[in-house]
Amino acid sequence: MHQSAMKAGIVRPCAQALLAATLLFGSWAWADPEAVSIVQDPTAVGIPVGKREAKTVKFNLEVQEVLGILDKEQSRTYMYWTFNGKVPGPMLRARVGDTIEITLRNKSDSAMIHNIDLHAVWGQGGGAALTIVAPGEEKSFVFKALIPGLFVYHCATPIIPQHISSGMYGMILIEPEGGLPKVDREFYLMQGDMYADDVRTSLDVGNTGTANTVFNLDRMLAENPSYVVMNGSAGALAAAPMKAKVGETIRVFFGVGGPNLTSAFHAIGAIFDRVSNLGSLTSPLLTNVQTTVVPPGGATMVEMKLRVPANYIFLDHAIGRLTKGNLAILKVEGEAVPDVFRPGKLP
Ligand SMILES: [Cu+2]
């Protein structure tokens, strides 16, 4: 995101010094060695429910505040607030009719209070009021999954957009009776907008003394993110692409944590065969869609058969955001299919 980020005007003088040092000493020379990857594995999609009866299901989530890699190329780090150490948090999977117990624990070394609001819940705050946990605390609540769908969950502790932007979102899939149709591979992607600026003084908002970027409230209020990420980190899923093979049918669970930006979700070089619009699993499917709209706190489920080998790029087609780190690559290998796509001219 290097040059693109510079063009976007988000590299400040201290970052340029950092960049110079990176060039001299190799990438990562200035990175805090404590910083970890917070990128959620895009193949971590949970276990499909299949044809089982409704039952009781328990999910345990732990809030972890971790110094994470925001932009590896730029050696930028950020103090993420996460569910289970990754962004997005774990994909939770159950079926309609299940009785679900959610337990939220806040690690004792956390600095902040947190909670969880799941959009799959019918009830006050989606569980937020029942799960307010100070550092070291643990709370639970129970809900019945009345409605199937692909739902976002997030922290709802003030300042809510700061908690969301800092990584506190994920998805819960409530499958219909009988489960979803079988596909060859499933992937889990979420987009978020981040308002991280380089630390200038020790008094910067939220500066813990370790991360080299901090949340900027004015930037968030102006809805002008410095980064738009897939699975938490700029360009991470381009550096480590998802993989599939020609002929396979894939399903992508895509959600937007936000807090602010609506995504024009698109796959470069492909067309979605089926779209579960807005994450609804009970409405007629849209078919043959180029770009689909996913609002903050919303989701979609897209399926497609992979016709030809290519590096397909999933992104927000508000394409200025590509320069802010917003892309994920699906590397599809297999024999060329010249009848569908080939170089050159017709005879
Ligand atoms: Cu929180």
What does this structure look like?
The structure is a single chain. 10% of the residues lie in helices and 38% in strands. It has 347 residues and is mainly beta. It has a 6-stranded mixed sheet. A 5-stranded mixed sheet has the order 13-21-20-15-18. The protein is globular, with a radius of gyration of 20 Å. Bound molecules: copper (II) ion.
Estimated radius of gyration:
20 Å
List unreliable stretches of 5+ residues.
Answer: 1-30
User: Could you tell me the strand content as a percent range?
Assistant: 35-45%
**Main sheet specs:** 6 strands, mixed
How large is the count of helical segments?
Answer: 5
* Inertia-based shape: globular
Question: CA-to-CA gap between the ends?
Answer: 41 Å
Major sheet strand order:
12-9-14-19-16-17
The H-and-E topology, N to C, reads as HHEEEEEEEHEEEEHEHEEEEEEEEE
Helix content: under 10%
Bound molecules: copper (II) ion
- Mean pLDDT comes to 91
Based on secondary structure, the structural category is: mainly beta
From the structure above, extract its key features.
6-stranded mixed β-sheet, globular, 347 residues, disordered N terminus, binds copper (II) ion
Q: Nutshell version of this structure?
A:
With 347 residues, the protein is mainly beta.
Secondary structure elements and their pairing?
Layout: H1 2-7, H2 13-25, E1 56-71, E2 76-83, E3 92-95, E4 99-106, E5 117-118, E6 138-144, E7 149-154, H3 160-165, E8 169-175, E9 185-194, E10 196-198, E11 213-215, H4 217-221, E12 227-230, H5 236-239, E13 242-245, E14 249-258, E15 263-268, E16 272-276, E17 286-289, E18 291-294, E19 298-305, E20 310-316, E21 328-333
Parallel strand pairs: 1-4, 3-8, 9-14, 13-21
Antiparallel strand pairs: 1-2, 4-6, 5-7, 7-8, 9-12, 10-11, 14-19, 15-18, 15-20, 16-17, 16-19, 20-21
The protein binds copper (II) ion.
